[in-house]
Amino acid sequence: MTEPRWLDGTEARVWRAYLETQRDLLMTLSRQLTRDSGLSGADYELLVPISEAPDGLIRARDLALAVNWERSRLSHQITRMEKRGLVAREECPEDARGAMVRLTEQGRAAMRAAAPGHVAAVRQYFLDVLSPQEIEMLDAALRRVAAGLPKDQD
After folding, report:
1. pLDDT at 1
2. Residue 99, Cα to own-chain centre: how many angstroms?
3. 51-79 residues labelled b (16+ CB within 10 A) or e (exposed)
4. Which long-range contacts (CB under 8 A, 24 or more apart) does 139-146 make?
5. How many Å apart are CA 25 and CA 73, to the nearest integer?
6. pLDDT tens, 116-144?
7. Distance between CA atoms of residues 77 and 99, nearest Å
8. C-alpha angle 68/105/31, rounded to 5°?
9. What is the DSSP secondary-structure string of the chain?
10. Contact, 74 vs 96, CB < 8 A?
């Protein structure tokens, strides 16, 4: 058995800073969404890919893949969103076992109302504190990290 490659002081500091910053940033953005629009971070995370799908209609399994959620988590969140009139489930025409998720007019209106404040918060708390060069460097670094991750997480 080989000795683990322990993190040095700088690596450990950067790793912890990444984890803490990601957690705090997502919490800040979620609170802003809830405060300003009544949508949760989970609502918004699902509404974005649904709203970007042709005709605001997406197969549930494709939505789960888009947001990297397990089927049960997606199902529970869709149920909550259905009760609030943001989305509607429909039968899948190609597969009787599959389900489609459609953005309702109420969901579309909620997205239109929430998006400007959310984008402003993303700018305020993330993009505006970085220089254009730092954004380019971060983009390249995150793409490299993502490219090195296993594609099949099963």
Report:
1. 79
2. 21
3. bebeebebbbeebbebeebeeeebeebbe
4. none
5. 22
6. 999 999 999 999 999 999 999 999 999 99
7. 14
8. 50
9. -PPP----HHHHHHHHHHHHHHHHHHHHHHHHHHHHHS--HHHHHHHHHHHHSGGGEEEHHHHHHHHT--HHHHHHHHHHHHHTTSEEEEE-SS-TT-EEEEE-HHHHHHHHHHHHHHHHHHHHHTGGGS-HHHHHHHHHHHHHHHHTS-S---
10. no
111: exposed, middle or buried (Cβ count in 10 Å: 0-12, 13-18, 19+): buried
Report pTM: 0.85
Between CA 100 and CA 139 the distance in angstroms is 33
**Beta carbons of 103 and 51 less than 8 angstroms apart:** yes
Cβ within 8 Å of residue 102, ≥6 positions away? 50, 55, 56, 57, 87, 88, 89, 90
CA 153, CA 20: separation in Å to the nearest integer?
A: 24
Q: Is 49 exposed, middle or buried (0-12, 13-18, 19+ CB in 10 A)?
A: middle
Rounded to whole angstroms, the Cα distance separating 125 from 120 reads: 9
Gap between the Cα atoms of 10 and 43, Å rounded: 36
Whole-number Cα distances in Å, 20 to 14, 79, 117: 10, 31, 23
